[in-house]
TrEMBL record:
It comes from Variimorphobacter saccharofermentans. InterPro entries: 4Fe4S_Fe-S-bd (IPR017896), 4Fe4S_Fe_S_CS (IPR017900), AKR (IPR020471), AKR2_Oxidoreductase (IPR053135), NAD(P)_OxRdtase_dom_sf (IPR036812), NADP_OxRdtase_dom (IPR023210). CDD domains: AKR_unchar (cd19100). It comes from the Bacteria. This is Aldo/keto reductase. Pfam families: Aldo_ket_red, Fer4_17. One of its GO terms (molecular function) is oxidoreductase activity. Keywords: Iron, Iron-sulfur, Metal-binding. The keyword Iron-sulfur applies. Residues 294-326 form the 4Fe-4S ferredoxin-type domain.
């Protein structure tokens, strides 16, 4: 069984974490089945957020009797100190616990620090002093913010998108975290659905000993795949290396990761999927996207008013309106 030591936190868990964003989309009982099954199969790290509607409540419901045997990471999007305390109090209530193992600032546009005028770092430190949280973390999609957090020495963990499609700079971030004793929690290890070979995804990440991938799980079939890696971790064979190489060639650098930080769109375009439709129709079963529902959704790209909200909010610096148009043209040709 592969274990990860999350930097200087002292947290040691199996190298398969449970990403609890998708359980928002299933019922409480269905979620409880997945969460309990994960726990009984050796998965003990659960990552959620106040922003993930009832995800915290479902974890509290399913696992509060196992509280001392699991680790819970949650997140706050607070931008004011009053919101910070309200959200932390609510998270503790929903999770049915009196402490959170890792409390993370959820994708802030800047790196909160003491004395920056927001009071947020002072508040999280106070929460730690009060024993309400055990470690301080930050999640981000912006590389400069993540690097600043790693260099600041203020964070015990950093959560950042990391997969075998990572750039050289992103790999350097992982190494910086390792040098500084910061636990690295990898979100989007399947790059928002673009990576379809989870064994290759796992085997690649396994080369980085401080990296803990959290797999977003919604279906039992998906969970079973990751559970099988608890006892039989995939090895980076020549065959899997070839899969990785092929994907890297096909996807390049400038592709939409489906993170959704560009929303809302005033023209109601489903940007996170539409902006990478060319990839999805070639990588996922075609029936999912070549149907009347998606034809209507893709046609909405014609309604774009070029407000550039999406472009200005994309952490990957994509020219989103242009990308959408290209995907729409390609989709029509593909049809
Ligand atoms: S530029 Fe177009 S796609 Fe982007 S947010 Fe504005 S209307 Fe939506
Ligand atoms: S366009 Fe950018 S912000 Fe929007 S979903 Fe894609 S990667 Fe994320």
């Amino acid at each position: 069984m592969n274990q990860v030591v999350l930097g200087n936190t002292g947290i040691v868990v199996n190298k398969n974490g449970f990403g609890a964003l998708p359980i928002q989309r299933i019922s409480k009982e269905e979620a409880a089945i997945l969460l309990k099954k994960a726990y009984h199969s050796g998965i003990t790290f659960f990552d959620t957020a106040r922003f993930y509607t009832d995800s915290e409540e479902k974890i509290g419901y399913a696992l509060s009797d196992k509280r001392s045997e699991i680790y819970i990471a949650s997140k706050t999007m607070a931008i004011k100190v009053t919101e910070f305390w309200e959200q932390l109090k609510e998270s503790l209530k929903q999770l049915n616990t009196d402490y959170i193992d890792i409390y993370q600032f959820h994708n802030p546009a800047f790196c909160p620090k003491p004395g920056d005028g927001t009071g947020l770092y002072e508040a999280i430190l106070e929460a730690k002093d009060q024993g309400l949280i055990r470690h301080i973390g930050i999640t981000n999609h912006r590389l400069p913010v993540a690097i600043e957090a790693a260099e600041s020495g203020l964070y015990d963990t950093i959560q950042f998108p990391f997969s075998y499609l990572a750039t050289h700079e992103e790999i350097q971030l992982v190494k910086l975290c390792q040098e500084k004793g910061i636990g690295f929690i990898a979100m989007k290890a399947l790059s928002g659905g673009l990576i379809t070979n989870s064994a290759a995804a796992y085997a690649y990440l396994d080369q980085f000993e401080n990296v803990l991938p959290i797999w977003g799980v919604q279906k039992e079939k998906e969970l079973d795949e990751f559970i099988s890696y608890v006892d039989h971790p995939p090895i980076l064979t020549e065959e899997l290396k070839a899969v990785i190489e092929k994907d890297r060639m096909e996807l390049g650098k400038d592709f939409c990761r489906g993170c959704g930080y560009c929303l809302p769109c005033p023209a109601q375009i489903d940007i996170p999927t539409s902006a990478r439709m060319s990839l999805m129709i070639r990588r996922a079963p075609v029936s999912i996207y070549l149907n009347e529902d998606w034809k209507k959704k893709m046609k909405k790209i014609d309604d774009c008013i070029l407000c550039n909200h999406c472009k200005n909010h994309c952490p990957y610096g994509l020219d989103t309106p242009k990308l959408l148009k290209e995907n729409w043209v390609d989709y029509q040709k593909f049809m």
